[in-house]
Fold this sequence. Notes:
Blueprint: E1 2-4, E2 17-20, E3 24-25, H1 28-38, H2 43-46, H3 48-52, H4 63-68, H5 70-77, E4 78-80, E5 85-95, E6 105-117, E7 122-132, E8 140-149
Parallel strand pairs: 1-4
Antiparallel strand pairs: 2-6, 3-6, 5-8, 6-7, 7-8
Amino acid sequence: MTAFTSIDGLAAHIGQPLGTSRRIRITQEMINTFASVTTDHQWIHTDPIRAARGPHGTTIAHGFLTLSLLSTFVEDLLQIDHLSATINYGLNRVRFPAPVLVDSTLHCTGTIQSVDNLASSTQIVAELYVHSDTSPKVVCAAELIFRLFA
């Protein structure tokens, strides 16, 4: 984790590694719960028997399930003291280069790409990479935009 006592030091850290997040295991129960919430019950996610005969030999997590973990991972990678709020502002780019197999363990690394002072907040773009213990490739690459309020 990279810790800052204020927003002021962020710009000096552009391009520097933020460390490594906690590890999160992706279970079938987690995938099924995500499918229920989003109503995306495609067999490749929720039917282990059929998925065993599919392209990955097992079920895989929804890409958006992986993406949704970025909020948790960012909390592990970046701590900024003395903020009144941190708001997810959106994404510039998202890719899912490799599938997340059920029972994989994920973690995240990243860097700050930009820091912009706005009228009432500071906007940060962070380039994040989600890694899996079952894939040599990154499973998610995303540019997350968030705004910090002091």
